[in-house]
Amino acid sequence: SWNGDLAPMSNKLKGIYDALDNGNWKSASKLCSTFLQKQQGHSLCRALHAVALERSGRTDEAIQVVLETMAAGATAAVGSATHLDDTVLNTLQVVLRRSREWENIVQMYEAALNREADNEEFACSLFFALLRQGDMTKAQQVATKLYRKFNKPQFLQWVIASILLQVRAGGNAKALDLAAMMLQKAPINMEVLKAESVSFDRGQLYLLMLHLSTLQMQQKQEQALELLEASKPLVKLPSDITALKVQLRCEAGQLKEAAKEARAQVIASPGSWAAVQDYARLAVLAAPDASRLCPDGAPEVATLEDVEKHGTADEAWNALLLFRHFQQAQETGISSGGGSGVNRVAFLGELELRRTLLAHLELEKSWKASPDELKDIISVMAVFIERFASRTHCFFDLKPYLALLSAAEVAPLLDLAAASKEKGREALVLSARLRRACCRPEETPASLEKEASEASELLSTWTSFRGGAKAAPEALLQLAVVALLEMDRACCLKGKAADRRFVLDAIALAELGLKEDEHAFGFKVLLLVLYSALGLPNLMMRRFGTMDIKNIQHESLSYLVLDELSSTCGLEGLKEVCQNIQGFHEDLDKDGGEALVAAFNKGVLPRAPEYLNSLTQVGHSLMWGRAVIEEALLEVASATSWEALVESISRRARLVASIAGKLSGHWILRNQDRALLNGLQPLELLTPASSMSSTAKADGSTQLRPRPRSVSSFALAWGDMSSNRPFPKLCRGKRGAAEELLHAGLEGQPAAELRLSASALQLLSNLLQKDGPSEDVVSKCMESARESLAELFGGSAPELSGLPAAASALLAEDAVASSSSSWSPASNEFRAMNWCCGIAACEMSELVLRCCSGKEVWDKVLERLESLSTAVKSFVGCLQRQVPGAEFSPPPRDGTACRPFGIGSFETPGLWSLLSCCLSLLIPVALWCTTALPKAGGKKVKEGQEALHSTRLALRNLLQALQACLGDLQAQMSGAASEAALPAEGSELPEVSALSTSALADFPELRKEAQTAVLDAQRKQLKALHEALGQRITLLKSRGSFKP
Asked: CA-CA distance, 622 to 644, in Å (whole number)?
């Protein structure tokens, strides 16, 4: 709430707060304007006005008000109307934080501290602003001044923490000596630790961690271990002590000692998977001469004494014996200390041990896993299935190890799972999951007949449980839906894409699953995937609205609809999704900042790296950048007049420029959850080494990481927590059909496209500003755009003159694209071509400015205008399947040919690419040129101006060509909407027999409902495209006719 102590405030100010609290941003802005007419310099009202403007989407105006308020308060006397007190500063900070203006926040508090040097609160605020900005050196300086002025122990720890964060971020390691020296002023109370019973002291525990972290970063692990041993009474959980010891010994290179510590932890907690996983990895790395394990010679180890008796110097062997011992534990309960937890984890421990050993040998000695060694893994997995086939966790426990096996090697496990069906429903689900897991496209391409048989078997099994006391296993029905989607892909790739019956069947089955359980999240995800296969964002948004997305899910799951909304004219929900993503980031940044402040104020400094990492990771989110730019593009696209265009582009110019200034490597995607269909997809075939985390060695080779980053019960370690994982890529034909659609947004270079679109918007903003464009800014934007465009094309962008031929050949070379764009890269390639054309239009503005200043001749602008006109005509012809000058017609297809702009066809996303990537840039630049081009004429033509009149004629021709092309497309949209129909269904395709049985008597009705919904959604989609075309035509006509 914005309301605070309202007693000293006037009624007008209270009204402003009430309007802000109720989300009435425009009303609040009007009230502020009225108030400021009488009290022009009132700093609090100006701050509230900035909040209202920013919330209204007028970000640049809001920041300008903030900067003016800061400037007015720089010399204001305390108590005056323009004075910036803590309330005003906090309000201004809200605007700056939402706009990510970290530098201005720092400057604001620096100025406040200069005015009031003894204000401790201002100094603390400056310290936290510097932390948030990432300037640890200045943060250390501010903390040092705080400690000297106020002499509080907490400020001493702030200095030390700032030094550690500074070094952690790549600063000079010599600064650690200063941290160690300052820690001498804050020693641990060792006298208290000598008592027989030591009570828990949180402050001393965090101080101990600060000492240990400093020694750790100084590479003084031995001293850290000694200090930890002496301070053990402070750490109440033995597992925390073990974790710290293992971490320190690994860093010191004492892998054998670390393995012994990990072993002791396993013996103490045999049901702890984290402890077992650590020990399995360390046991291999602690034995540099580790050889291949020979299970046939393993002795009986009924007791721990037997384990010790048969132990050797090979820690990997010792680990195997220990795991074999715990595998004999009797099942007495499901807990970390009971039988199920112990023996289950022990089997997984042996699998992890064997995988780690094979990975180690692969990396260190280039040995490949032999069939015998894989047989050993298969044998352990077989025993695991025999014991746990009736448990839900069985498949997911084995999943990391199944990825090491080919389909032929998994066959024995499939037979074993099939033989375990009498163990109940979960055993049936296990068998079905295993069959799908080993159906890798690169090993066994999908067969329509095979998938039809699989779908029928799954449906028959599922219906056998239907109507019982317990709900039928939803996984069986979900796997049947996946099988139908595989059939659709196979059908499309075989040239029968006009028949999309299997997608419609899958939609009906998914709806049936939701009818059985309306909260089944998996079916909702599958429906989103199925609707994306048909290019229907309206239906996707309708289903997405039922998923109750909240908090972090806006970051991790919004890609499910954002990718499709931004590529197929999903205007209805795009703005809502973008605003939800931005709202989540605002809340998370606010909460994360408050958590960081609380950590320092309460002395919980071990949490500082965790909080800073989270804030940094969120700040680099590609989803946030996309949400900002997509919303800005949407506002530009909706403009139907020149004034509206100028106003929409100028709203967020500063934020757009900030995003444009970030290189592609700045953005991260790891926050997205693309494993939503876990257990329903084929597993990627991996080698042992590629399936495990590794680190780079000094010589460029790789080695296994000793263990996962340690996490105690109270903090993360103070190590470098950065991750250099590359962006995941879409590998068409190498993943399951559903997974391919989930990863569709990763095709191409999403980070490069973000920078490209932001650079183009920044250029338009500069062109359309009131004071006229800056040639230097335009050149800088074009440099960024060219770099991004080259990255988008994987090396170098094509010439504008080559785009017509490329567009003409696109559908001719890709027989799938014309009627099933979801299974073809053609839509993405066409989008990249349109970006290329749009950037060429932006480049034309640079040429015009250079010509006006006498640096270029008008012939280049003339050539560019003609090339742009030809390119746009070729794009429109491609969408109409009639490319002038190219001998092209759609290839013959089996079955009924797909209609242009039909359901799932290439034309729908293709047209939106033309409108959003090409014309959203070309039209504003062309309209700008109508006033930017000098008028030709006069008695004497100046040197270099000979082609100016021809250039103006070419501009008129371009504007006329654009209106004609858009008019033709709009007429075609009207016809396509009135003639919209479902794809015809042939009779030569295999049938899924289970769909026509009496057990699925409700299926036909659901199928009809799905058909009706799909057809209605397609009509709405075409209507939206028709309206979008009308908006572009209106904008083209907004400045009247152009006279050369």
From this structure: 28
